Amino acid sequence: MNKGDLRKKYINFRKKLSLSEVDDMSLKIANQALQLDIWDFEFYHLFLSISKQKEINTEYLLQIIFGKDANAVVPKVRGEILEHFLLTDTTKLRLSKWDIPEPVNGIKIEPSQIDVVFLPLLAYDKQGHRIGYGKGFYDKFLSNCRPESLKIGLSFFEPEAEDIEVSDHDIALDYCITPESIHKFKSN
């Protein structure tokens, strides 16, 4: 199945979820994340959910990050790239043209500073290849992170059985967390 067909398939899967299912599965994903040995780092990059797209509610992960006295970093789209800002109590958020909550301004964080990246995705396979919405923002961002930065996808669904087509610029996940399991893709 090609990337376009997979996007449609998983967008439709999400549309069928009730808001209470989204919330329940989001909490389970956060609880699964607590099983990983990833909570001694300093900077955690986390996308803020597009609620109308029934994305995973990352508020639960945000609470874990703050509970561990770590720093949460959130993205903002600037042209063709993502910029990254420290999320604090005083950070003002505004919805972008895609209804993504984004920081208005704040303390900029460089990709090379980020230790763990929680990634949005629509689909992924058993090798850790992911499909997002197709704009390439996250692949560009990940190419500027340190190679040892952990890349963790979040999904309501299990991986696709067949391999996803891969482009030269695609960067694979280290893990993907679902409500019921944690998938590890390469040696860490």
Automatic annotation (TrEMBL):
Keyword Iron-sulfur: no
E.C. number(s) listed in UniProt: 6.3.3.2
Keyword Metal-binding: yes
GO MF annotations, alphabetized: 5-formyltetrahydrofolate cyclo-ligase activity
Cofactor(s) needed for function: Mg(2+)
Pfam families assigned to the protein according to its UniProt record, in alphabetical order: 5-FTHF_cyc-lig
Source species, domain of life: Bacteria
EC category name: ligase
SUPFAM superfamilies referenced in this protein's UniProt entry, alphabetically: NagB/RpiA/CoA transferase-like
Catalytic activity, reaction form: (6S)-5-formyl-5,6,7,8-tetrahydrofolate + ATP = (6R)-5,10-methenyltetrahydrofolate + ADP + phosphate
Annotated keywords: ATP-binding, Ligase, Magnesium, Metal-binding, Nucleotide-binding
Cited NCBIfam families: MTHFS_bact
Cited PANTHER family: ATPASE INHIBITOR/5-FORMYLTETRAHYDROFOLATE CYCLO-LIGASE, CHROMOSOME UNDETERMINED SCAFFOLD_24, WHOLE GENOME SHOTGUN SEQUENCE
Similarity comment: Belongs to the 5-formyltetrahydrofolate cyclo-ligase family.
Name of this chain's protein: 5-formyltetrahydrofolate cyclo-ligase
Species of provenance: Psychroflexus longus
